[in-house]
Amino acid sequence: MTNKKIKTAKRKNQNFFSQNFKEGLQYIKQSRNFIYVASAIFILFIFVGYFVPAPQSLEKVILKFIEDLIKTTEGMSWTELTNFILFNNLKSSFFGMALGVVFGIFSVLTTLANGYLLGFVSSRIVGTEGIAILWKLFPHGIFEIPAMLISVGLGLKLGTFIFKKKKFESLKEYSWKSLKAFFFVVVPLLIVAALIEGTLIIFFG
């Protein structure tokens, strides 16, 4: 392949990613009201998880989940841990968006659960190690939390197709635009978040 052809191919790839990123970002802006709703639910349940004592049965389930997670990741290398974190965040965010098709119910439940879990864990950590320990949440949270809230907001919007006159056309349009926003905006955010979180756990954990 000649240099000219290589440069042309690179330019096409750059244009492809740039154009799709811009379109994904534009759709996210159009969906901002739904993202605001998701953010409000998330923040509310952080406070609920932090300040309201959990029922004993729920507390046991959460602690068991955390214990199993620690055992699963114990002894992982930086690469393994980063991949594990990324895969789980991708899965959670994708289903938080895709399952919003059912009237947005699952998107709301995803936001509620994530907010409550963050509040619960933060309360436990602060209670045992002090509030300064929360600094570890901030670096990757700057990328991970917006990515999750964008996904859920897109899921909420996706669920509104049922109220449109042209339901199938609306579903197809929202699905395609949501996927574009997910792969070109959300995924890069989650990759950065996983890299930061994996590094903090391995080297500063």
Structure characterization notes:
- The protein has 205 residues and is mostly helical.
- It contains 7 helices and no strands.
- The protein has helices at 3-30, 32-51, 56-73, 78-98, 105-129, 138-158, 167-204.
- The longest helix has 38 residues, at 167-204.
- 29% of the residues are buried.
Layout of strands and helices, then pairs:
Elements: H1 3-30, H2 32-51, H3 56-73, H4 78-98, H5 105-129, H6 138-158, H7 167-204
Helix pairs in contact: 1-7, 2-5, 2-6, 4-5, 4-6, 4-7, 5-6, 6-7
Series of secondary-structure elements, N-terminal to C-terminal? HHHHHHH
Mean pLDDT: 88
Q: List the total number of helices.
A: 7
**What is the count of β-strands?**
0
* Rg over CA atoms: 19 Å
End-to-end Cα distance? 48 Å
Low-confidence stretches: none
Biggest beta sheet summary = none
Structural class: mainly alpha
Helix share bin? over 70%
Globally, the shape reads globular
How big a fraction of the residues is strand? under 5%
Q: How would you summarize this macromolecular structure in one to three sentences?
A:
The chain is an all-alpha fold and 205 residues long.
Top keywords for this entry?
205 residues; mainly alpha
